[in-house]
């Protein structure tokens, strides 16, 4: 039970509690973030359908992946500054309303170009992460910030996993109801996440507060508007260490969320539903793995401080890199799923550990630091997408369709890309490990 008053940040996190503005905001923000990720990656498990209907090539698929994460880079940088200035409540509401438009309209795409533009626009929803992390940071006391941030982030990130599992089922449901054909089912399925974004825009505006003691406008908070919080974040080298680290963990997470369905169908011959479930397992790990990273980081921080958390982050990145290397080498589906779970655990714990450090870089610029570090994750994803585009191998295979007719199809193998990625992450972890990462005048307690 928290020992502080109801209009102050909480010093404990009881996820089964809905009492008070802090816990109400906590649950609404992670649920909103959950459905933002659901919408962002709603197309991932449906890409085999879109790929076939729109006749997308390997290069075009690579460009679509790059587009889906590149817009988020600019959006996260901008959103961080906006949240510092205007508060999370209004900024989140407008973000949800604006991003619902391309999610609802992507199903109207009739060409690669229009699909690419809608996928680019949908990527802006990834900036929701910055607002979520800011909102949990201000609702909880320093001793529990890492746990609160990681739990909200982990629960929210799981939306990508649920999307991979359920979007093929939603598409199949529309077909079963006679609404559309199998080929067009991906178009109708994307209406569902678009509507959900609008629902949560209303809930966020109606039931959250910017701070435990009220909204920015009510409290007359204007000093952040005058102070350049972005430059405060930019000038601190620790911001950039975390940015690189987050590129190596969250950047990989986005890549797996996007490429895993196609990887499992093309490399291992899995069906669309099976590939969606396999990729979904990776996303759903977030429910417990990212919170675990934050919890352990908070405990390490109490004993060893800021630098101890950094050591934990480095070790998690090293384990992640080793796991991905072996994932890229295996050619057996069951073992690949096991390795994906293994490196996924360390990756998502690293995500949580990273954002247990973010709130302590500069308390005057939490939004800007969160935005820069979050953008780093998407820069990593964009660079990894170029890697996958370069390393992907095209091959043809004879497949028997539902009517028993043998057809030759062009497939894509990303095995070499995963192996190379693992080497890069391992090296990144070692670099973070040797960087002297001290904290000056830490606000951590």
From TrEMBL:
<keyword id="KW-0812">Transmembrane</keyword>
<feature type="transmembrane region" description="Helical">
    <location>
        <begin position="116"/>
        <end position="143"/>
    </location>
</feature>
<dbReference type="GO" id="GO:0015112">
    <property type="term" value="F:nitrate transmembrane transporter activity"/>
</dbReference>
<feature type="transmembrane region" description="Helical">
    <location>
        <begin position="310"/>
        <end position="329"/>
    </location>
</feature>
<feature type="transmembrane region" description="Helical">
    <location>
        <begin position="270"/>
        <end position="289"/>
    </location>
</feature>
<feature type="transmembrane region" description="Helical">
    <location>
        <begin position="155"/>
        <end position="179"/>
    </location>
</feature>
<feature type="transmembrane region" description="Helical">
    <location>
        <begin position="335"/>
        <end position="358"/>
    </location>
</feature>
<feature type="transmembrane region" description="Helical">
    <location>
        <begin position="365"/>
        <end position="388"/>
    </location>
</feature>
<protein>
    <submittedName>
        <fullName>MFS transporter</fullName>
    </submittedName>
</protein>
<dbReference type="InterPro" id="IPR044772">
    <property type="entry name" value="NO3_transporter"/>
</dbReference>
<keyword id="KW-1133">Transmembrane helix</keyword>
<comment type="similarity">
    <text>Belongs to the major facilitator superfamily. Nitrate/nitrite porter (TC 2.A.1.8) family.</text>
</comment>
<dbReference type="GO" id="GO:0016020">
    <property type="term" value="C:membrane"/>
</dbReference>
<feature type="transmembrane region" description="Helical">
    <location>
        <begin position="417"/>
        <end position="439"/>
    </location>
</feature>
<feature type="transmembrane region" description="Helical">
    <location>
        <begin position="240"/>
        <end position="264"/>
    </location>
</feature>
<dbReference type="InterPro" id="IPR036259">
    <property type="entry name" value="MFS_trans_sf"/>
</dbReference>
<dbReference type="InterPro" id="IPR020846">
    <property type="entry name" value="MFS_dom"/>
</dbReference>
<dbReference type="Pfam" id="PF07690">
    <property type="entry name" value="MFS_1"/>
</dbReference>
<feature type="transmembrane region" description="Helical">
    <location>
        <begin position="62"/>
        <end position="79"/>
    </location>
</feature>
<keyword id="KW-0472">Membrane</keyword>
<dbReference type="InterPro" id="IPR011701">
    <property type="entry name" value="MFS"/>
</dbReference>
<feature type="domain" description="Major facilitator superfamily (MFS) profile">
    <location>
        <begin position="25"/>
        <end position="440"/>
    </location>
</feature>
<feature type="transmembrane region" description="Helical">
    <location>
        <begin position="91"/>
        <end position="110"/>
    </location>
</feature>
<dbReference type="GO" id="GO:0042128">
    <property type="term" value="P:nitrate assimilation"/>
</dbReference>
<feature type="transmembrane region" description="Helical">
    <location>
        <begin position="28"/>
        <end position="50"/>
    </location>
</feature>
<feature type="transmembrane region" description="Helical">
    <location>
        <begin position="185"/>
        <end position="205"/>
    </location>
</feature>
<keyword id="KW-0534">Nitrate assimilation</keyword>
């Amino acid at each position: 039970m928290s020992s502080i008053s109801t209009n102050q940040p909480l010093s404990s996190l009881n996820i089964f509690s809905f009492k008070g503005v802090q816990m109400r905001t906590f649950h609404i923000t992670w649920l909103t973030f959950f459905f933002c990720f659901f919408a962002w990656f709603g197309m991932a498990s449906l890409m085999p359908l879109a790929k076939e209907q729109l006749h997308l090539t390997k290069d075009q698929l690579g460009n679509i992946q790059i587009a889906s994460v590149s817009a988020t880079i600019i959006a996260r940088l901008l959103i961080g500054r906006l949240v510092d200035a205007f508060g999370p409540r209004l900024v989140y509401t407008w973000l949800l309303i604006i991003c619902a438009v391309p999610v609802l309209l992507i199903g109207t795409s009739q060409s690669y170009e229009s699909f690419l533009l809608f996928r680019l626009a949908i990527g802006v929803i990834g900036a929701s992460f910055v607002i979520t992390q800011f909102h949990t940071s201000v609702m909880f006391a320093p001793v529990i910030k890492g746990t609160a941030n990681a739990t909200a982030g982990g629960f929210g990130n799981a939306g990508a996993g649920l999307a991979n599992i359920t979007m093929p089922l939603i598409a199949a449901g529309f077909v079963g109801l006679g609404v559309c054909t199998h080929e067009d089912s991906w178009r109708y399925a994307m209406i569902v996440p678009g509507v959900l974004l609008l629902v949560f825009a209303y809930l966020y505006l109606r039931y959250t507060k910017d701070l435990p003691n009220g909204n920015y406008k009510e409290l007359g908070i204007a000093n952040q508007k005058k102070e350049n919080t972005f430059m405060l974040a930019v000038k601190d080298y620790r911001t950039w260490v975390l940015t690189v680290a987050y590129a190596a963990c969250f950047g990989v997470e986005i890549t797996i969320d996007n490429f895993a369905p196609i990887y499992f169908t093309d490399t291992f011959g899995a069906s669309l539903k099976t590939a969606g479930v396999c990729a979904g397992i990776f996303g759903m790990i977030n429910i417990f793995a990212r919170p675990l990273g934050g919890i352990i980081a908070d405990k390490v921080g109490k004993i060893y401080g800021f630098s101890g958390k950094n050591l934990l982050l480095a070790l998690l990145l090293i384990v992640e890199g080793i796991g991905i290397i072996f994932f890229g080498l295996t050619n057996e589906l069951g073992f690949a799923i096991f390795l994906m779970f293994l490196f996924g655990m360390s990756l998502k714990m690293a995500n949580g550990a990273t954002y247990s450090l973010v709130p302590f870089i500069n308390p005057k610029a939490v939004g800007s630091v969160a935005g820069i570090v979050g953008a780093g994750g998407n820069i990593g994803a964009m660079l990894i997408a170029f890697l996958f585009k370069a390393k992907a191998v095209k091959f043809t295979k004879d497949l028997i369709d539902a009517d028993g007719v043998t057809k030759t199809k062009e497939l894509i193998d990303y095995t070499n890309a995963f192996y190379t990625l693992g080497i890069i992450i391992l090296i990144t972890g070692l670099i973070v490990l040797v960087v002297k990462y001290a904290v000056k005048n830490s606000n951590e307690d």
